[in-house]
């Protein structure tokens, strides 16, 4: 057995091979790049705040209720995703898959409310083309939403692989990495909730 | 985390979840239902958001496992870069808007 | 769209280019078919995940791009030699300086250095490949397809013309209608994916795949510089990605980020562009510093003076380079406190850079210096780069910058840092590591001739530009009146430009000449090197190291030689089978699809963009289901290969 495939049984399943350890570290570094990416979108959004042209402003359109629903759904999905990994570490493939499916359903629910919110804004005359502010709003939120959609698609792939190949060091690593991604989307949302919605309603 | 705790009840996650719900509600209350100054509100709710992000990283994302040191370093460094990008941009652009309107 | 709008028409220069492109394509297809090389091309190159082959492809592409960017430069010099010249009109001139700048930075300097990183870094740290060989191939092909997308603009649809910085409103729909600017946005976007992946890939490789015993402070300086470069890439490129995406939304989807109407803010583009742009400058200079460190240390036969100071100065640069970006637009109207802050940080970043100059000088001091082509490039770098650096500090003073900015003084400054820094380093690295990859050296006589012609040409070309700047000549003008008095210096600069072109041609000829006539090297260590890459045979077997070396200090291979230790004895040594990654066709297919998606967006043909994007997603799903377990090289096969490469040495 060569060095690259040496199994270290003292580690959790997803850390057992060298390849897994490399991939997980690489993914953390990728998340660092994602922070720079969302940082730039936030910078753009804050600078363009208040540049409404003739369009409506955020305080006229933002509604706490819908936003809180989206926030709680996403927070809960982050929790269920964490439980999924907890189940994985107990060696339960079934538990992992059930909690992942729950996470995905919550993700879909989040997308449903977000898209409904966007449609509402567009009806009220606020779209990507309305003003600099709304361009920045839709791009920041849209990028996050696109990440969530991608995450759902990606999780589906991993669920198929879990069903087909069972829980082994490869599928465990993949499940762990998608969980990092999913939690990270929640981190981004926390800042969107605070920086976009709460500040938008206050100012 | 020891091997043993894996089979136990996921306390970390439950506490983290409750905390994040509570912190979310707290920032809503501070932002919308108190009469603090805007500056104070911004400082408080941004701090609460940072705490929440920390909860995700440390209680949900197992940041200290694997290459723990490198991972924490990556997140700290990216946070610094993120702050430079956001605060720097706001500072520079506001300065230019200000001098243009003079 | 009419066909004559699709193809660029009406310019004899471009018709000439069309003909030569078609002829070379026919030539390539003919040769490949005649010698039945299609399968070889696919198996050995297009699907390879070997870091050395990817590195070679990076460098070949970069040399091609150097040619393209160089032709642009020659056209500009031809236009500016005489006052009131009518050779190029202003819009054509705008296109040429735009593509010159973009190609040289994004598609020449970076890929050349990343190519050298690909070839050298795994060998220097005693690794068999990079952390993610598959992603490495994705990196190369997205870069290549992005470069192609950008480059076809001049025959299909028209080139961008808003400068490599693409400032708005110049780059907006009103002043840059048509596909040109879209090519810039999409070409850079596609190539940027590859660069970001390279950053992550090499950082993890360097952090995790070093040979046992190689601590961080025992890493060769080129590896260190690559690691820091990766950090800069990882945090700077997402900013470019966003900036490009926002402008794409403005131009194609009617958003208002940088528009003059509806609340858009043109200054925000400059701000975001340079948050990426300044780290980018260090992305193309730090690996150059690493190359010079290796070359100077090897040919002074001493270890690098002040290794630690060198490392710490690069770490400081990694942080400081993110807080100097406003110095690129001091005159845009920020107030005194902002300009002072960025002026100070800019001057501060000159300190770690200055430290390095002294390190190199003290490495040379009392060394047993051997002069050859690689060393000549490194020695010429020091004084030329100091000129560029000192004029940079002049520009760093915000108040003084109001005088210099937008003149040829600036043009001279950044060519002095980028050519004598990056381009000299690329040539030094090419001469230095060439035998490692190809098994023969490049001819020294031709190398020295090309060196002298190029370096003299460079100084003749760009030194006068400082004075043109003082005389008030603004950059990016396509012509000037006779009574400005700028003719003489411009004529001198053009002579220098011609010399540089001759130097470049000799370098390329030298590659051809050496492939045909150079003596094959008998050892993997033709320079009496110090670092681990020289402990492998030349050309390097695809698994790099039959046995992973143990490292006990800085310059490990030098240490092994000094202690008189026996080279690896292949018959005696207990070898183990080696695990290697499999080739994959997915990266090249994925990148071609990205090219098509980008092309669709350039012309706003959404059906094409959407279809190709779906294709990209399909390739990603295919990849997700690919178990990609790699294969094992058996001990007997390793012994066979090692016997063959080592037999030559006897």
From TrEMBL, chain A:
GO MF annotation terms: cytochrome-c oxidase activity; oxidoreductase activity
One Pfam family, short name: COX3
Keywords: Cell membrane, Membrane, Oxidoreductase, Transmembrane, Transmembrane helix
PROSITE patterns: COX3
Major location category of this protein: membrane
Gene3D superfamilies per UniProt: Cytochrome c oxidase, subunit III, four-helix bundle (1.20.120.80)
GO cellular component terms given for this protein: plasma membrane
Biological process terms in GO annotation: aerobic electron transport chain; ATP synthesis coupled electron transport
UniProt topology in membrane: Multi-pass membrane protein
Name of the protein in its database record: Quinol oxidase subunit 3
Organism: Pontibacillus yanchengensis Y32
UniProtKB/TrEMBL annotation, chain B:
InterPro entries: Cyt_c_oxidase_su4_prok (IPR005171), Cytochrome_c_oxidase_bac_sub4 (IPR050968), QoxD (IPR014250)
Protein localization: Cell membrane
Listed Pfam families: COX4_pro (PF03626)
GO MF term (any one): cytochrome bo3 ubiquinol oxidase activity
UniProt entry tagged with the keyword Cell membrane: yes
Keywords: Cell membrane, Membrane, Oxidoreductase, Transmembrane, Transmembrane helix
TM ranges: 12-32, 38-60, 72-93
Gene Ontology annotations for the cellular component aspect, listed alphabetically: cytochrome o ubiquinol oxidase complex; plasma membrane
Recorded topology in the membrane: Multi-pass membrane protein
Enzyme Commission number(s) from the entry: 1.10.3.-
Chief place where the protein resides: membrane
NCBIfam families: QoxD (TIGR02901)
The protein's role, per its UniProt record: Catalyzes quinol oxidation with the concomitant reduction of oxygen to water.
PANTHER family per UniProt: CYTOCHROME BO(3) UBIQUINOL OXIDASE SUBUNIT 4 (PTHR36835:SF1)
Similarity field: Belongs to the cytochrome c oxidase bacterial subunit 4 family.
Protein name as it appears in the record: Quinol oxidase subunit 4
TrEMBL record, chain C:
Compartments in which it is found: Cell membrane
Transmembrane stretches, start-end: 12-33, 54-76, 96-121, 133-156, 183-207, 228-253, 273-297, 309-330, 342-362, 374-400, 412-434, 446-471, 491-512, 607-625
Function per UniProt: Catalyzes quinol oxidation with the concomitant reduction of oxygen to water. Major component for energy conversion during vegetative growth.
GO BP, sorted A to Z: electron transport coupled proton transport; oxidative phosphorylation; respiratory electron transport chain
Pfam family, one: COX1
GO function terms (MF aspect): copper ion binding; cytochrome-c oxidase activity; heme binding; oxidoreductase activity, acting on diphenols and related substances as donors, oxygen as acceptor
GO cellular component terms attached to this protein's record: plasma membrane
Residue span, Cytochrome oxidase subunit I profile domain: 36-552
SUPFAM superfamilies: Cytochrome c oxidase subunit I-like (SSF81442)
Catalytic activity: 4 Fe(II)-[cytochrome c] + O2 + 8 H(+)(in) = 4 Fe(III)-[cytochrome c] + 2 H2O + 4 H(+)(out); 2 a quinol + O2 = 2 a quinone + 2 H2O
InterPro entries linked: Cyt_c_oxase-like_su1_dom, Cyt_c_oxase-like_su1_sf, Cyt_C_Oxase_1, Cyt_c_Oxase_su1_BS, Cyt_c_oxidase_su1_bac, QoxB
Uppermost EC category: translocase
Family: Belongs to the heme-copper respiratory oxidase family.
Protein name (database record): Cytochrome c oxidase subunit 1
Cofactor needs: Cu cation; ferriheme a
Membrane-topology annotation of the record: Multi-pass membrane protein
Enzyme Commission (EC) number: 7.1.1.9
Keywords per UniProt: Cell membrane, Copper, Electron transport, Heme, Hydrogen ion transport, Ion transport, Iron, Membrane, Metal-binding, Oxidoreductase, Respiratory chain, Translocase, Transmembrane, Transmembrane helix, Transport
Statement: the UniProt record of this protein carries the keyword Phosphoprotein: no
Biochemical pathway: Energy metabolism; oxidative phosphorylation
NCBIfam families, alphabetized: CtaD_CoxA (TIGR02891), QoxB (TIGR02882)
């Amino acid at each position: 057995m060569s060095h690259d495939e040496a199994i270290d049984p003292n580690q959790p399943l997803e850390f057992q091979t060298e390849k897994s350890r490399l991939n997980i570290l690489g993914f953390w570094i990728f998340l660092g790049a994602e922070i720079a990416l969302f940082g730039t979108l936030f910078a753009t959004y804050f600078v363009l705040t208040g540049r409404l042209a003739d369009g409506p402003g955020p305080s006229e359109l933002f509604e706490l209720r819908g936003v809180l629903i989206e926030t709680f759904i996403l927070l809960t999905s982050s929790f269920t995703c964490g439980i999924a990994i907890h189940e994985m570490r107990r060696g339960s493939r079934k538990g992992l898959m059930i909690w992942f499916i729950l996470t995905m359903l919550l993700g879909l629910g989040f997308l449903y409310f977000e898209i409904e919110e966007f449609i509402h804004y567009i009806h009220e005359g606020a779209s990507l083309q309305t003003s600099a502010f709304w361009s920045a709003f839709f791009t920041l939120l849209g990028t996050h939403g696109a990440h969530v959609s991608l995450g759902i698609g990606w999780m589906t792939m991993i669920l198929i692989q879990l069903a087909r190949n069972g829980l082994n060091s490869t599928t465990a690593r993949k499940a762990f990495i998608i969980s990092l991604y999913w939690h990270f989307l929640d981190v981004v949302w926390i800042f969107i909730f605070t920086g976009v919605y709460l500040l938008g309603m206050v100012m | 985390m020891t091997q043993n705790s894996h089979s136990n009840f996921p306390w970390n996650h439950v506490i983290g979840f409750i905390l994040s719900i509570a912190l979310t509600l707290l920032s809503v209350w501070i932002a919308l239902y108190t009469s603090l100054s805007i500056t104070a509100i911004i400082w408080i709710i941004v701090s609460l958001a940072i705490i929440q992000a920390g909860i995700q990283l440390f209680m949900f994302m197992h940041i200290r496992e694997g290459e723990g040191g490198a991972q924490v370093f990556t997140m700290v460094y990216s946070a610094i870069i993120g702050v430079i990008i956001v605060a720097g941009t706001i500072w520079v652009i506001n300065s230019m808007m200000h001098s243009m309107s003079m | 769209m009419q066909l004559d709008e699709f193809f660029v028409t009406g310019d004899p220069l471009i018709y000439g280019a069309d003909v030569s492109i078609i002829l070379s394509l026919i030539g390539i297809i003919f040769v490949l078919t005649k010698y039945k090389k299609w399968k070889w091309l696919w198996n050995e190159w297009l699907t390879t995940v070997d870091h050395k082959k990817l590195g070679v492809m990076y460098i070949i592409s970069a040399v091609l791009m150097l040619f393209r960017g160089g032709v642009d430069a020659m056209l500009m010099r031809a236009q500016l030699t005489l006052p009131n010249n009518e050779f190029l009109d202003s819009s054509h001139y705008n296109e040429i300086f735009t593509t010159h700048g973009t190609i040289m930075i994004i598609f020449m300097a970076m890929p050349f250095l990343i190519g050298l990183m690909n070839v050298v870094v795994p060998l220097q740290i005693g690794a068999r490949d990079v952390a993610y060989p598959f992603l490495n191939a994705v990196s190369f092909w997205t870069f290549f397809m992005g470069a192609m997308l950008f480059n076809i603009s001049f025959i299909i649809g028209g080139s961008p013309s808003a400068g490599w910085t693409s400032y708005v409103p110049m780059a907006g729909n009103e002043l840059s209608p048509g596909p040109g600017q879209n090519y810039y946005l999409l070409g850079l976007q596609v190539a940027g994916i590859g660069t970001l992946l390279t950053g992550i890939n090499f950082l993890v490789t360097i952090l995790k795949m070093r040979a046992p015993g190689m601590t961080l402070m025992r890493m060769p300086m080129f590896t260190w510089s690559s690691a820091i470069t990766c950090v800069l890439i990882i945090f700077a490129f997402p900013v470019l990605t966003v900036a490009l995406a926002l402008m794409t939304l403005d131009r194609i989807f009617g958003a208002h980020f940088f528009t003059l109407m509806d609340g858009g803010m043109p200054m925000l583009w400059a701000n975001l562009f340079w948050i990426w742009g300044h780290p980018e400058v260090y992305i193309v200079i730090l690996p150059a510093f690493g190359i010079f460190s290796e070359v100077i240390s090897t040919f002074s036969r001493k270890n690098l003076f002040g290794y630690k100071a060198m490392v710490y100065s690069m770490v400081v640069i990694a942080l400081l380079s993110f807080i100097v970006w406003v110095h690129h637009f001091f005159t845009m109207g920020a107030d005194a406190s902002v300009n002072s802050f960025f002026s100070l940080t800019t001057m501060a970043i000159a300190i770690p850079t200055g430290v390095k100059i002294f390190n190199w000088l003290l490495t040379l001091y009392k060394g047993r210096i051997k002069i050859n082509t690689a060393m000549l490039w490194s020695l010429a770098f020091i004084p030329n780069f100091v000129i560029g650096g000192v004029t940079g500090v002049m520009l760093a003073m915000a108040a003084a910058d109001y005088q210099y900015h937008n003149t040829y003084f600036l043009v001279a400054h950044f060519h002095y840092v980028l050519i004598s820094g990056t381009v000299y380093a690329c040539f030094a690295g090419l001469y230095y590591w060439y035998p490692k990859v190809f098994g023969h050296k490049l001819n020294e006589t031709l190398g020295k001739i090309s060196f002298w012609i190029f370096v003299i040409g460079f100084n003749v070309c760009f030194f006068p530009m400082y004075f043109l700047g003082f005389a008030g000549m603004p950059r990016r003008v396509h012509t000037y009146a006779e009574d400005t008095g700028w003719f003489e210096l411009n004529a001198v600069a053009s002579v220098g430009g011609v010399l540089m072109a001759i130097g470049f041609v000799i370098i390329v000829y030298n590659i051809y000449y050496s492939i045909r006539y150079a003596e094959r090297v008998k050892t993997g260590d033709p320079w009496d090197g110090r670092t681990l890459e020289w402990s492998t045979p030349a050309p390097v077997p695809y698994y790099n190291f039959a046995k992973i070396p143990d490292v006990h200090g800085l310059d490990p291979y030098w240490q092994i030689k000094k202690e008189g230790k026996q080279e690896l004895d292949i018959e005696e040594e207990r070898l183990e089978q080696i695990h290697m990654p499999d080739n994959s066709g997915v990266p090249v297919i994925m990148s071609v699809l990205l090219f098509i998606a980008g092309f669709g967006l350039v012309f706003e043909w959404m059906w094409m963009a959407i279809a190709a994007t779906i294709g990209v997603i399909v390739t990603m799903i295919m990849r997700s289901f690919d178990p990609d377990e790699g294969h094992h090289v058996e001990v007997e096969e390793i012994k066979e290969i090692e016997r063959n490469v080592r037999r030559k040495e006897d």
